[in-house]
Amino acid sequence: MNNTKNLLLIVVGLALNIFIANSSLANVRIAVMDFENRSGYGGWKIGAGAADVLTTELVKGTKLNVFERDRLNTIISEQNLGNSGRVDPATAAAIGKITGVQYVVTGAVTEYGDSKQGASGKGVSIGRKGYSASVDIRIVDVETSQVIFAESGSGTESSLSLSVKGIGGGEKFDDKKASKAMREAIKKVAKKIKQAKLSAKKVSAAPANIVIADVTDGVVTLNQGKNAGISSGDQLTVKRKAKEIKDPSTGKVLRVVYKTVGKIKITDVDTGYALATIVDNSGGIKTGDSAE
């Protein structure tokens, strides 16, 4: 009887631990940024494609709460934070706070391409075309801006070709096979991310967008005050949206370019607004400009 009771307690305990683990993992919010492409093959689309595959694998294979990629890219464009090329931990943390996630995954495609091997004799040649892909990923803790997890994964795919007296054997680069090697590499890192000890925790909110609400007789009124961490004596740079750069084929905004139009100095701060004087007005500061 005691043995049965003990066994029951063990089973219940295991089930409870699994439930707690899955529940806590479901509360972990994570975002995946475009990978940097260091492979020398293709362009930024290789990195974006790798990030899309990793997002899919995390959604399918884990209980993680993964931030939607289209929304992430839109926010990155609006905030002019950039999502192509290398992203340092500080930038990743800033993006994380804006989106409300606890962890941000950055990565790099370090290998992506094909290679050839073969032998020939008496007019017959046999060749093997190999495809390989490797990725490195890092997970940044949004609250500390520290890299808390780093892993890598590799994948391969190959095919045989036969040529008789120069006929046949001319396989061109096969994007599908290369992509299959990439997916294999990413599946490996996704599995490692699942095993990482990520815990749900509260993340401090990102600073609110500071916008100039009014400019009258040299006095600038801002739409934020103490609630946004503004203090008397602070000097802020004033910027204005110059243009949006869009993908010609889709019309999607890739990034927003801002230009500096001046500087202001905070003189008085209330809870929900602040007053400032103009230090530099080279670009003609006006209502609607942003300050940082």
Account of the 3D structure:
The chain is of the alpha+beta class and 292 residues long. It has 2 domains: 166 residues, Rossmann fold (3-Layer(aba) Sandwich); 82 residues, Beta Barrel (Thrombin, subunit H). Helix content is 29%, strand content 39%. A hairpin with a 4-residue loop joins strand 5 and strand 6. Helix 2 crosses helix 5.
Please give a quick description of this structure:
It contains 5 helices and 12 strands. With 292 residues, the chain is of the alpha+beta class.
Helix count equals: 5
Tally of domains: 2
Which strand-content bin applies to the residues? 35-45%
Could you tell me the CATH topology label of the largest domain: Rossmann fold
Any idea what the CATH superfamily of the largest domain is called?
Answer: ABC-type transport auxiliary lipoprotein component
Rg (CA only): 26 Å
